[in-house]
Amino acid sequence: MRDKITLIGDIGGTNARFALTSTKNLSFYEYRKMKCADYITLSDAIESYLKEINLDAIDNAFLAVAAPIFEEKIKVINSHWLVDRKELAKKFNIDSIHVINDFESIAFAIETINKSNYQAIGPLKQAHTKKFQYNIGIIGPGTGLGGAGLRKDEDKTRVYAAELGHVGFASQSELQLEIVEVLRGKYNRVVNETVASGPGLRNIHWALHCIKNKRYEEYSSEEIFKQIHNSEIAKLSVDLFFEMLGQIAGDFALAIGAFDGILITGDLINSNSHLMQESLFRFGFENKDNYQDLMQNIPTSIINIPEVGLLGIYQFYNLKQAE
Question: Which of 2-11, 31-40, 128-137 shows the highest mean pLDDT?
Fold first, then answer.
């Protein structure tokens, strides 16, 4: 039997990550990370990737995409790319193409992750790895804000994606209310990812300058993090970012019954995990009035492994191969 080569991809609003796997391989290989802005279409990016690794053809494709998956043509949220399954299959002469949500993909990776790869935020360590039944949530701020759930019963594991970033944001302080009021002048809706994402941190930073009547200069989210020791507004922006992310994570845990834990992922978090440890994330997470006792018993942890989305789509590929 011929070794069939499969393209796997994790496609976000800013970056696309590609790799290969095959029927005779026990892992994935030829990993590349590419900027979406450098390519007009997804097809162009795949073509460039294949050219770079000197590969003429692929047999199948498994893609994790930052978008709700409900139509044949999928618009990538926060990107100009469109995932057109029919067009991709025709252009690359692919036997089959599977597309799932990017955070649904991360959920498929969870059961392969060792407990040593969880970095606890707060006093509780992640304990779902020792249980036969559990319900956990996964969130991650990046270009947007993704979310998914994973419910395991004794006989079945269920994975489900959530459009957490597009749920309306609920303020929990006077300053947050002021920030939201300022942002309403810029956005039709102030949703979770308006404040809890890379662009969200920049939004908080801008809104605070407006509130404090200070001269504003635009910085990237990475630059704002770097300025926390010499800029009062940068420090306050980061403090609010983590507190708001905690609030959203707590709301998500309550909404899906993820009482066995919330896992946090993404480059933005992994690059600043030391700041998150000392932040108001847990305060925001637990600040739920009558539900505070419940929230205090839900662990929150960072998944501190790289490319967990690509690992997830690889695991989804393996599940499909086993069917």
Answer: 31-40
Which residues are registered as beta bridge partners of 61? 7, 97
- Token pair in block for residue 97: 């193409």
Q: Report the alpha-carbon distance of residue 307 to residue 117 in Å, rounded.
A: 13
2 has a pLDDT exceeding 70: no
In a domain, residue 109? The reply is no
Residue range 254-263: average pLDDT?
Answer: 97
- The total of structural domains in the chain comes to 2
**Does 300 share its domain with 311?**
no
Q: Within a domain: residue 137?
A: yes
Residues 126 and 216 in one domain: yes
Measured in degrees and rounded to the nearest 5, phi and psi for residue 12 equal: -105, -170
The CATH number that applies at residue 265 is 3.40.367.20
- The pLDDT tens digits of the residues spanning 61-106 come to 999 999 999 888 999 988 999 999 999 999 999 988 999 999 999 9
Angle between the N-to-C axes of helices 232-256 and 198-211, in degrees from 0 to 180, rounded to the nearest 10 = 130
Assess contact for 82 and 73: CB atoms under 8 A.
yes
Q: CA 145 to CA 143: how far, in whole Å?
A: 7
Asked whether the beta carbons of 10 and 146 are under 8 A apart, the reply is no
